[in-house]
Amino acid sequence: MKKHITACLLLSIMLCCLLTPATAQEVVEEQAVPQQPVQQQQQETTPTTPATVQVLPFGYLSFSSVFVQMPEYAQAQQDFAALKAKYEAEATRAEDEFQRKFADFLQGQKDFPTTILQKRQAELQDLMEKSISFRQESQRMLEKAEKEMQQPLVDKLKQAINEVGNELGLMFVVNTDDNACPFIHPSVGVDVTAPVLTRLGLITTTPAP
Fold it and tell me: Cβ neighbours of residue 169 under 8 Å, at least 6 residues apart?
């Protein structure tokens, strides 16, 4: 029994020697730190709810629907149709010339010497290539001409939209063409079609909503 007590005392003395003062102090401080309640920890980690997003005032309209109502648009379409008719007439003349020479070639190819046959074939090939090239070039020129004719109208309409937007204090105006915005709530968006038409002089007064 005395041997057992002596052994326990020796073991206690050895443990005290191994535990340095710094380590003992850390153990004491760790035990002394109070634990935060679980509810308080959850409150500190819970993200705050973001503030309500402010909706910017904006307008909307169909650019194309207003564009085609401008009187200048009808005049531009007439001028474009006249120019297109001229290109079409020239292309038809060249094609008719090809068809006539091709018919002559088919009628006399059996009697043509080889040199004349080759010459006629080269002429027909040249006419066909020129006809195709003219068709392609005329299409490009017509697209360019149509854009140039409509550009002043586009600029005028954009200017009217800018002026209306500034007057109404709008941040931007949405173009609803091509079903870009299938739905716009009237409480956040303003239909500026009537004010723009008024600005362009197409209607005298803005109808009441």
Answer: 57
pTM: 0.65
168: exposed, middle or buried (Cβ count in 10 Å: 0-12, 13-18, 19+): middle
Report the alpha-carbon distance of residue 49 to residue 58 in Å, rounded. 27
pLDDT digits 0-9 by tens, 74-90: 999 999 999 999 999 99
According to the 3-state scheme, what is the secondary structure of 122-177? HHHHHHHHHHHHHHHHHHHHHHHHHHHHHHHHHHHHHHHHHHHHHHCCCCEEEECH
Domains and CATH numbers, the chain: 58-199 (3.30.910)
User: CB-based contacts of 159: which residues, under 8 Å, 6+ apart?
Assistant: none
